[in-house]
Specification:
Elements lengths: L1 E2 L2 H8 L3 H5 L6 E6 L3 H16 L3 E2 L6 E8 L6 H18 L4 E6 L7 H8 L5 E3 L7 H11 L3 E3 L8 E2 L11 E5 L1 E2 L10 H5 L3 E2 L2 H13 L4 E5 L12 H8 L7 E5 L8 H9 L6 E3 L7 H6 L6 H14 L4 E8 L6 H14 L3 E6 L17 H24 L5 E9 L6 E6 L4 E5 L8 E9 L4 E8 L1
Parallel strand pairs: 1-8, 2-3, 2-4, 4-5, 5-6, 6-7, 9-12, 12-13, 14-15, 15-16, 19-21
Antiparallel strand pairs: 10-11, 17-18, 17-20, 18-19, 20-21
Helix pairs in contact: 9-10, 10-12, 13-14
The protein binds S-adenosyl-L-homocysteine, iron/sulfur cluster and FE3-S4 cluster.
C-alpha cells in the first residue's frame, strides 16, 4: 500500500534547498492548522518537510518566507473564515515579494473551493489537497524555480499511503500516529469521505516502527488516529494492533480515536482492559439518541445497541472514561427526537461530550433532506443540551474528589502558571500545585476540587 521511497528520496533531494538560495540564512515559516487531530498530524509533517528544506519556525508573519493554511471543511463557516485569512495575507505578500503562500488540506478537495482560490487569490502560490502532502517539496521547488503557481489536487483512489515523511512534533511528551486514512462510512451529514477519500490502513510495521522511533525521542503517550479505528485492517485487527502498540518499551500510554459504534466489539474492549499501556478511555460518537435520526444519518446502529456497548465497556472496566460527539438540528429532527438525545445523555452520563450544531455540507445526502431545523430552534436545543451535559460532567468530576489519580504531567497550566497540568488515563485534565517541575513524568494527585473543564488537586507523590 505504501507509496515507495520515491518521496523519501525527494526529501533528500531538496534538503537544505532554501538555505542554499537564501545564501545560508534560515527563512521563517508558519503552519496554520484549522482542523481535527488528523489535520494537526498532517501539519506536523508539513513542518517536517519545511524544516528539512531549511526553513525555521517564525513567530510573526512579517518574519515568514513561507505560510501555509491547512484547512478543514467539516463545518460550513470555515470557508468564509479561510477567505478572510487569505485576504489578510495580501499585505504580507505586498511587503515581502519572496513570501510563498500555500493552502492545503480537506477544503481544497471540496468542489469549487480550489477553483475559487485560484480565481480570487492570485497570490496563493501553492494549492494542494489532503492526499498530496508528500508532494510539498516538489511543489515548493516548482514555485521557487519557475516563479509560477503549483497546484496538485490528486484524488486517485488507487494511491497508496505516503510513508517516511519527516515530522516536527508539537509536543515532546505526546504524539499522534495515524493508523489509517480516509473514511468509507458516508454518514449523511459528513463531508470527510468526499474530501479524504477511501479508507486505507497503514502497515502495522510502519505504525509500530514510528512508535518505537517516538519512544526513542522521549515520547510517553501516543494517540492512534483514524476516522474509524475499529475498521482498521492492516493484516491484523485493531484489537491486535492495540495489544502490539501497548507492548512498545517507553510508550506508557496509548490512546485512540475515533471508534464507530457500528463495529466495536468485545475484542477491542478486552484489548483495552488487558493492555496496561492502553488508557481506559473510549470516545464513541453517538451523534443522536433517536433511532429515526440515526437511520437518516446512516449510522448503522440503534440507541439500544449503542447502550449495550457502553454497558459492556463499563462491565469490563468500571472506571472507564466515556466521551462522545452529538449533533443537534439534523434535518427533520423533532423535539421528540431531541428529547431522545437528552435522555441518552442522562442514561449514559458521559464524562464529556463534544456538541455540534448541524451544519449543511453541500454534496452530502443530508443537504438535500427536507425538514431543515430553523436556526433559533437549533441554538435553543444546543443550549439546553449543553446545560444538561455540563451538569453531568461536573457531577462526574465531583465524584472523583478525594480519590488519587495518576496523571501524565504535560507542563505548567496555561490558565494559571503557578499550577502544573496533566491528564488522567480517563482523559480528564488535572491542575495541581507543586514546587517542582517534571513535565513528561507521572504523578499521583489527590483530587481536592472539581470544575466542569478540569479537576484540581495536590501532589500526593511522583511516580
Ligand atoms: N470520524 C470521526 C470524526 C468526524 S468529524 C467520527 O466519526 O466521529 C468530528 C465530528 O464532527 C463528528 O463526530 C460529528 O459529530 C461532527 N460533524 C461532522 N459533520 C458535521 C456537520 N455537517 N455538522 C455538524 N457536525 C458535524
Ligand atoms: Fe464522517 Fe461518519 Fe466518517 Fe466520521 S465515520 S468521518 S462522521 S462519515
Ligand atoms: Fe479533519 Fe476537518 Fe478534514 S475534521 S478530516 S480536517 S474536514
Amino acid at each position: 500500500m505504501a507509496i515507495m521511497s520515491d518521496e523519501r528520496y525527494e526529501s533528500g533531494k531538496y534538503a537544505g534547498y532554501v538555505n542554499n538560495i537564501n545564501a545560508g540564512g534560515h527563512p521563517g515559516y508558519m503552519v496554520k492548522t484549522f482542523g481535527c487531530q488528523m489535520n494537526e498530524s498532517d501539519s506536523e509533517k508539513l513542518a517536517g518537510w519545511l524544516e528539512a528544506m531549511g526553513y525555521r519556525p517564525a513567530v510573526t508573519e512579517e518574519d515568514c518566507s513561507f505560510i501555509i493554511f491547512n484547512t478543514c471543511c467539516v463545518r460550513e463557516s470555515a470557508e468564509q473564515r479561510l477567505f478572510g485569512h487569505l485576504g489578510e495575507m495580501k499585505k504580507y505578500k505586498t511587503a515581502n515579494k519572496d513570501l510563498v503562500l500555500a493552502v492545503c488540506g480537506c477544503m481544497m478537495q471540496q468542489e469549487g473551493v480550489a477553483e475559487k482560490i485560484r480565481r480570487s487569490y492570485p497570490y496563493a502560490d501553492i494549492i494542494f489537497g489532503a492526499n498530496s502532502m508528500h508532494k510539498l517539496p516538489r511543489l515548493l521547488h516548482e514555485v521557487l524555480t519557475q516563479r509560477r503557481r503549483a497546484v496538485d489536487l490528486e484524488d486517485d483512489p488507487a494511491q497508496g499511503i505516503a510513508e517516511g515523511m519527516p515530522a516536527v512534533r508539537s509536543s515532546g511528551i505526546s504524539a499522534y500516529v495515524p493508523i489509517m486514512h480516509g473514511c468509507d462510512n458516508f454518514c449523511t451529514y459528513c463531508i470527510v469521505p468526499y474530501v479524504r477519500g477511501r479508507e486505507k490502513s497503514r502497515d502495522p510495521k510502519d505504525i509500530l516502527d514510528e512508535m518505537r522511533g517516538l519512544a526513542g525521542e522521549g515520547i510517553k503517550e501516543i494517540t492512534l488516529l483514524g476516522q474509524n479505528v475499529n475498521s482498521y485492517d492492516g493484516g491484523i485487527s485493531f484489537a491486535g494492533l492495540l495489544r502490539k502498540a501497548g507492548g512498545i518499551d517507553g510508550i506508557e500510554r496509548v490512546r485512540f480515536m475515533t471508534s464507530h459504534p457500528k463495529d466495536i466489539g468485545r475484542d477491542i474492549l478486552e484489548a483495552i482492559h488487558d493492555t496496561d499501556a492502553v488508557c481506559n478511555h473510549l470516545h464513541l460518537p453517538l451523534q443522536s439518541g433517536s433511532d429515526r435520526i440515526l437511520g437518516l444519518m446512516n449510522r448503522n446502529y440503534s440507541r439500544d445497541s449503542y447502550f449495550a456497548i457502553l454497558d459492556m465497556a463499563r462491565e469490563i472496566m468500571p472506571g472507564i472514561g466515556l466521551s462522545t460527539d452529538i449533533i443537534v438540528g439534523f434535518p427533520g429532527e423533532t423535539e421528540e427526537d431531541f428529547q431522545d438525545t437528552m435522555d441518552a445523555l442522562e442514561r449514559v452520563r458521559f464524562d464529556f461530550a463534544f456538541t455540534f450544531i448541524y451544519s449543511r455540507r453541500k454534496g452530502t445526502p443530508a443537504a438535500e433532506m427536507p425538514g431543515e431545523v430553523p436556526d433559533g430552534i437549533k441554538h435553543d436545543r444546543f443550549d439546553r443540551m449543553l446545560g444538561v451535559q455540563n451538569r453531568i460532567t461536573l457531577e462526574r468530576n465531583k465524584a472523583s474528589i478525594g480519590t488519587v489519580e495518576t496523571v501524565l504531567v504535560e507542563g505548567t497550566s496555561r490558565t494559571d502558571p503557578s499550577m502544573m497540568t496533566g491528564r488522567t488515563g480517563s482523559n480528564k485534565i488535572v491542575n495541581f500545585r507543586t514546587g517542582g517541575t517534571k513535565a513528561g513524568g507521572f504523578a499521583e494527585i489527590l483530587i481536592t476540587d472539581a470544575r466542569t473543564w478540569h479537576l484540581e488537586g495536590e501532589l500526593y507523590r511522583w511516580k
